[in-house]
């Protein structure tokens, strides 16, 4: 009986060792900046051999962001790197690409796009399971839950809710309304989305006047390194200048990579809260 138990323990140990070695040998391709952040946070960054061009966080991921936009990845570019595992979500679902990868014996893990904290936690669980990083995954989820609880407590201290209008775009400006990733970020930060519509819409003078925001929020690329010229682009618009945001020259920015729900979203929400409501504390 003792020998049988010993053999059973040895078999379990060998199975565990084999799983560890198999996962350590994975050559991972990622599509989606938020997924790249998860994989690196779980400690599997060294196994990533390529990612889409938006995967520039964390800093060490920039060197492997050699593929195209998630909506336009080529099978040739991916296979040239010799991957064993492809991880993405269904935001830019490409059934043809996924089928080609499977035909080439590349394992594909296609996740449901995260539009809530619960979805994000499920993504982490599945990625951690695939990479045999379940303990790290549990720690990451616990950290996110702690951050979420801290934000909930902070929001209870708000005296006067602030309305913000999120604007972005290179040539013409777009506004982010309800049911968008930005809208969820604003909710996490205790900020009211001034845009009273769903989805994304082009900015018009009438829509800005109706929104009447207390402040503007944009992405870092719109202001970083542009100084006053970047701010003037917004406050030089007559309709914006007539709002409380324009009159008080209130504008802030968030990293463009954090406009999608990911592991850094809660940190970004806390920074927004501190910047917007710090004087109320």
Could you name the key traits of this structure?
2 domains; ABC_Transporter_SBP; Rossmann fold; signal; 14% strand; ABC_transptr_periplasmic_BD; four-stranded parallel beta sheet; ABC transporter substrate-binding protein; alpha/beta
Under the CATH scheme, which architecture of the largest domain would be assigned?
Answer: 3-Layer(aba) Sandwich
DSSP summary: helix tally? 13
Instruction: Report the uncertain regions.
Output: 1-22
Count structural domains. 2
Protein structure class: alpha/beta
Number of strand segments:
10
In CATH, the topology of the largest domain is named: Rossmann fold
The coarse silhouette is globular
| Average pLDDT reading | 89
Biggest sheet character: 6 strands, mixed
List the helices and strands in order: HEHEHEHEHHEEHEEHEHHHHEH
Rg for CA atoms: 22 Å
Kindly, what is the distance between the CA atoms of the first and last residues, rounded to a whole number of angstroms?
67 Å
The CATH C-level name of the largest domain is: Alpha Beta
Overall helicity: 40-55%
- Provide the CATH superfamily of the largest domain: Nitrogenase molybdenum iron protein domain
């Amino acid at each position: 009986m003792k020998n049988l138990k010993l053999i059973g323990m040895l078999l379990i140990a060998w199975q565990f060792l084999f799983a560890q070695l198999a996962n350590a040998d994975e050559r991972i391709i990622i599509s989606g900046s938020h997924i790249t952040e998860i994989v690196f946070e779980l400690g599997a960054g060294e196994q990533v051999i390529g990612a889409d061009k938006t995967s520039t966080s964390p800093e060490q991921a920039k060197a492997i962001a050699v593929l195209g936009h998630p909506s336009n990845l080529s099978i040739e570019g991916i296979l040239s790197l010799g991957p064993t595992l492809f991880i993405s979500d269904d935001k830019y679902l490409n059934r043809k690409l996924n089928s080609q990868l499977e035909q080439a014996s590349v394992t594909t893990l296609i996740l449901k796009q995260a539009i809530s904290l619960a979805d994000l936690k499920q993504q982490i669980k599945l990625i951690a399971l695939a990479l045999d990083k379940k303990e790290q995954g549990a720690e990451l989820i616990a950290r996110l839950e702690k951050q979420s609880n801290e934000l909930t407590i902070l929001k209870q201290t708000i005296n006067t809710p602030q309305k913000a209008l999120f604007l972005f775009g290179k040539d013409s400006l777009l506004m982010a309304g309800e049911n968008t990733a930005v809208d969820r970020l604003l909710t996490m930060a205790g900020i009211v989305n001034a845009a009273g519509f769903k989805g994304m819409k082009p900015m018009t003078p009438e829509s800005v006047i109706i929104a009447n925001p207390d402040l503007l929020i944009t992405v870092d690329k719109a202001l970083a390194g542009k100084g006053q010229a970047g701010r003037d682009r917004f406050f030089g618009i007559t309709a914006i200048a007539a709002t409380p945001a324009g009159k008080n020259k209130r504008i802030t920015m968030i990293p463009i990579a954090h406009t999608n729900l990911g592991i850094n979203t809660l940190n970004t929400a806390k920074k927004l809260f501190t910047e917007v409501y710090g004087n109320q504390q």
